[in-house]
Amino acid sequence: MYKANKTVFECQSCGATSPKWLGKCPDCGAWNSFVEEKQDRVKAIKKDGGAVPQSLADITLDSEDRLSTGIEELNRVLGGGIVSGSLILIGGDPGIGKSTLVLQMLWSLYVENPAIRTPALYVSGEESPKQIKLRANRLNISGEAVNVLSETCMENIFEHIKRMKPSVIVIDSIQTVFTQEIPSAPGSVGQVRECALKLMMFAKDSGTPIFLVGHVTKEGAIAGPRVLEHIVDTVLYFEGDRGHAYRILRAVKNRFGSTNEIGVFEMRDGGLAEITNPSELFLSERPQSVSGTTVVATVEGTRPIMVELQALVSQSTFGVPRRATIGVDVNRVNLLIAVLEKTGGLHLGGMDTFLNVVGGLRIAEPAFDLGIVTTIASSFRELPIRQHVFVFGEVGLSGEVRGVSHAEARIREGAKIGFKEAILPESNLSRLNANIKPEIKLIGVKDIDEAIKAALDI
Ligand code: TYD
Ligand code: MG
Q1: Of the residues 3, 171, 240, 293, which has the maximum number of CB atoms within 10 A of its CB?
Q2: 97 touches ligand 1 (CB under 6 Å)
């Protein structure tokens, strides 16, 4: 017989369910992640019959559909502004600046869009209104743009929303709110999913954009079920090293724009400041004429950024050499070390290799390969890369250098920062537009040998 209120066990990391408690999740492999949750299987069906199908041709769009946040870096990551009715999740480590970012955004949104005269609603389950006021003072934000609500019960929150009709809603954080419809604790998979679904339905029905702030687990995923990432339209990660002031906002999912876009900020005393020229920032402390450092032209989304990559290659004191990296994938580096051994003739087998992308950026694009190869070669040979040179290109397993996308954008960015020469894949060079800046010398290379010779001037 069908029971309306059934007890199920649900994996807290992936949302898989089981009628019995399990020690290990068969879906995602997490240990000890099953928690008992009451599941209410009877879902309310809309009385008016729900939505009506309409012809795609009849749906009209107006350019007003995107709302500028007044923060250019945030607009770019969102794909050009906030789409009305969208649900946006901002995840990040505690203390990275998520609450600061949303509060600053609510204020600049209000300043930027004179048409909006209903205040935004900032629902905080973590901080008291006084704490929020203290932060607002620190950010120099005057209060009329934001209404603060310290509440965690979804039903009460919706009461206020219906009465107030806010222009934008922020829920800080999704792990602290709960709905009375299901009995499990706030922050559990069932609660997070149910609350997010309710908010999503409200966002789509009313056209109000909603921001959710989410915590991140030790492993770096947004706490709660992966299903949360499927529900929302946009997932942004706010990341950065707590020791550094730089913060990077990265879109990992975006239904309304490209992913991989990043926004760069600096956390200052008076809040987050936009960094519009990250290349200059990442290169500002670059040492001159030392070995083991290269400037690589990388592209994040559509935006070229020059970053410094450092390598330290030294004699290993253990039998097995150590390879550690910050900002690049260690497997990729191991692969490129093997290529350097085999076709580049560098004996790295007994050497410890450490790599670091300066400034806390994480880079996953293949065009970074040539940077990795030349930096390791420079440190190994103890020869500095020639001054005013930057590199980019993908490296294949037989040591060939392959062409990459956005070659022109990379070259222009390098020229803008003041570089005089670029080492790039031969195939990119032959396809380049003739109108590229003439003051920059372009050196096309076919394999890593040529690249290392050109970079180290040997
Ligand atoms: P917060 O937004 O509370 O982080 P989250 O919501 O992600 O947990 O940011 C907290 C940190 O930011 C805290 O360590 C202090 C720092 N901060 C500044 O450096 N300058 C400022 O103007 C503000 C408001 C915070
Ligand atoms: Mg916070």
Answers
A1: 171
A2: yes
Q: Looking at ligand 1, which residue's alpha carbon is closest to its atom 23? A: 271
CATH number reported for the structural domain that contains residue 345 in this entry: 3.30.230.10
Ligand 1 pocket test, pick from 106, 176, 249, 267 with the greatest ligand atom count within 8 Å of Cβ, gives 267
Can you tell me whether residue 428 is helix, strand or coil? helix
> Taking the chain (458 residues) in consecutive chunks of 10 residues, what is each chunk's mean pLDDT?
67 83 87 78 58 85 77 92 93 90 93 86 93 93 89 94 93 92 84 92 93 77 67 90 83 85 90 89 84 93 89 90 93 95 91 91 92 96 92 96 93 89 93 74 94 91
Q: Is the CB of 96 under 6 A from ligand 1?
A: yes
Does residue 208 lie within any of the structural domains? yes
Is 49 inside any structural domain? no
pLDDT of residue 439: 76
How many distinct structural domains can be found in the chain?
A: 3
Chain length of the chain: 458
Same domain (yes/no): 195, 218: yes
- Identify the domain containing residue 425 by its residue range: 281-456
Q: What are phi and psi of 441, to 5 degrees?
A: -90, 130
Residue 51 falls inside a structural domain: no
Judge if 96 and 148 occupy the same domain.
yes
pLDDT of residue 47: 59
195 is a domain residue: yes
The pTM (predicted TM-score) of the whole model is 0.80
Q: What is the DSSP string of 109-147?
A: HHHH-TT--SPEEEEESSS-HHHHHHHHHHTT--GGGEE
CB-based contacts of 334, cutoff 8 Å, min separation 6: 323
